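Attaching the record inline, Q. Sequence:
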Amino acid sequence: MLKPLEHYLRRHRLVRPGERVGVAVSGGADSVALLRALAELAPELGVVLFVLHLNHKLRGADSDADHRFVATLAEQLSLEADIESCDVGLLAARHGLSLEAAGRRERYDFFQRAAAEYRLDCVATAHTRDDQAETVLLRLLRGAGTSGLAGILRSCDLLSVCDRSSASSCVPDATPSAPPARLIRPLLGTSRQQVEEYLTSLGQPFRHDTSNLDPRFLRNRVRAELLPALERDYNPQLRQALCETADVAAAESDFLDDLVSAALGQPNETDSGIDVPLLQAQPVALQRRILRRLCQSRGLALDFAQLEGLREFAVAGRAGWIQLPRGCSAKVVRTKLLPLRLRLHTPWK
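Structure, as predicted:
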């Protein structure tokens, strides 16, 4: 596993010599393998590692045992660590979120705070090729466009995945000139089987999270039931096909994003709205992308039907307004001597 991982890191320039890399370690097989592999490669890569662990307090004594396991492993590897706890169950109830959504939000907020405090250049998470295949299949089931089919991105700005509306604050680096920390996924080229074989070769123990077997979670059912059935009955190479779909979709999504930026021009600011004639002049694919970017700049996520309703309203080119979800609205405004302009109004911004 080490040589392919090193090749993947260098090929995609995920880390650079001299960087400080936070490694997110839950205690499970994937994250323990990532930490052990990066610890072996760190001298050759020229990077400094830092261990990150967030105890979600969801499994009682087992969660606390994970906490101790990661702390001990970091000590054995002579690595600094930041190990924190939060009651994800309480936060989920307080904010009306699922346990998965609340856990994800708190986890990425934690990564962002740690990146700022410890001057980390990037945070590495242990998503594997199997996770990628499961993610793409899940998004197909729920409905997704090109961006969704891109699945788990190999690298992105950490702040872009940090939910700034969460109870915990996402605090960017206090140094204005410092580039934002990156989120990287070095194991996206590695299968779960390779991970397990690597840990066996080291004799390295890891923690088992029993919640990964809970059929109440859709991802667990996809992993244990749907994906194996599709491989058995339809395509034995389905995982590879789904990961290849993600690679193609990610590249095409980046290309479309570049076209949107070119259409909007500089400084590419959408907070004040967009000119309706500019929107009307674009192909439908770019109209949707431009409107999705406008919505994202206001913290608003729309499903396909909602976005299509907004698009049809906007390109009609008539002054007026429509209601959007979560108390939001969109208005086409006519101003003297200026083109019609589409503006979003949200109660929180």
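The longest strand covers residues 48-55. The radius of gyration is 22 Å.

More tomorrow.
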